[in-house]
Every structure is written in C-alpha cells, then in structure tokens.
Specification:
Largest sheet: 5 strands, antiparallel
Mean pLDDT: 80
Order of helices and strands: HEEEEEEEEEEH
Number of helices: 2
C-alpha cells in the first residue's frame, strides 16, 4: 500500500510539472470595477458624468461596470508591471447608446490600439481584443466623451499569452516543453510509472 501511495504521489508531481498552467492572471487591478469604485485607476480630463454602478447598461460580468459620459474628453488609465518582451492580450467590453460626437478609444503606452465608432449605438456588450508587447512597465488608457449619452466599460483584462525566453548564454540548457508536447510527455511518464508498479508487484508476489 505504501508503494502504491508513493507511486501516486510521484505521478501527481509529474502532472504538475508537465501540464501547462491554464489559469491566466489579470495583470490589472479592479479590471471589472468590482471594488465599487475606480480604485487602482487614474482619472484625468473631464471627470463629470463618470461613475461605477450596478445600473446603467447593467454589468457585463459581476455586479459593477463603469459608466462614462463626460461632455469633454476624459481619461481612465492604469499602470501595471510585466515582463519585458512578453506578448500581452488586452480585452474589454464596451457598450454605447450613441450620440453625435461620441468618442471611445483604447491606448497602449500612448498608441491608439482600437477604432471604435461610439456614435453608433450597441444593444449588447461588445468585446474588443488586441495584443501588445510588454516593456516592463506599461500603461493602458481609455479616452472617451459622450455629449448626449453614455459609454459602458467592463471586464478589462490583460493576460500574458506568450513569454519572452532569452537563449542560454552558452547555447545549452534544456528547452521548456511546448504545451502541445505536454500530453505526450505525460503519457510516457504515466506508462513508465505503471510498468514500474507492475514489476514491483510481480516481484513482491514471488
């Protein structure tokens, strides 16, 4: 019985080392505005008619979303730390009830990354996704105004989709297993453990 428990424990260790992690942490703080405020975010420009609420368009996820409707340009930004060279996926949901002159744009380190026509009303939450390269310390900023309506924002999420791996100085070292190869490695590892267990069981019976 002790041998069986030991083999099972070893198998669990192999699984944890081989299989890639499926959980992707959001690099932003309060990306879904579930704090009930703009905590972690910095607001500049026109601060009027902006709030975090459970009403308005109704949240896309959770219980809160941001409602943005200043009559002149307002900005909502957050600085976050990452690993230089990593590939980041930025995603968020927006909704607009339209209105002449409405503006909504997402910038990454000051570079416009989206072309959203907020003048056209949206009846449902719409997801926007783009990728960017991490520099070590980056800024995501939303620019917005809505002279006669509101723009909803929710589910702002930044995750790492590819890591930057520097080659070893001497050209050696063991490469990190690719996710596609993980099931194969796990299969051979499990098979080896099974054969070892079977061999020990046969030896014990004799």
């Amino acid at each position: 019985m002790k041998r069986v428990k030991g083999l099972l424990a070893l198998l669990l260790v192999c699984i944890s080392l081989v299989l890639p992690s499926v959980a992707k942490a959001n690099l932003l703080c309060n990306g879904g505005f579930e704090f009930g405020s703009f905590a972690c975010w910095t607001r500049t420009g026109d601060l009027s008619f902006t709030s975090v609420t459970a009403f308005g368009f109704g949240p896309e996820e959770g219980t809160r979303s941001a409602l943005l409707g200043p009559r002149s340009l307002g900005f909502l930004s957050q600085t976050f730390i990452d690993n230089p060279g990593d590939t980041l996926q930025v995603s968020f949901y927006y909704q607009s009830n339209g209105g002449a002159g409405a503006v909504f744009e997402a910038d990454f380190n000051g570079n416009p990354m989206t072309a959203i026509n907020a003048v056209i009303p949206t009846s449902v939450w719409t997801q926007v996704i783009f990728t960017a390269t991490a520099t070590g310390s980056d800024i995501l900023r939303f620019d917005y105004l809505s002279a006669s309506g509101f723009i909803g924002l929710d589910g702002v999420d930044i995750t790492v989709v590819a890591t930057h791996q520097d080659p070893p100085p001497d050209g050696g070292g063991s490469p990190i297993p690719e996710p596609a190869r993980a099931p194969t490695l796990l299969f051979f590892g499990t098979s080896a453990l099974f054969l070892l267990y079977k061999k020990r069981r046969t030896s014990f019976s004799h």
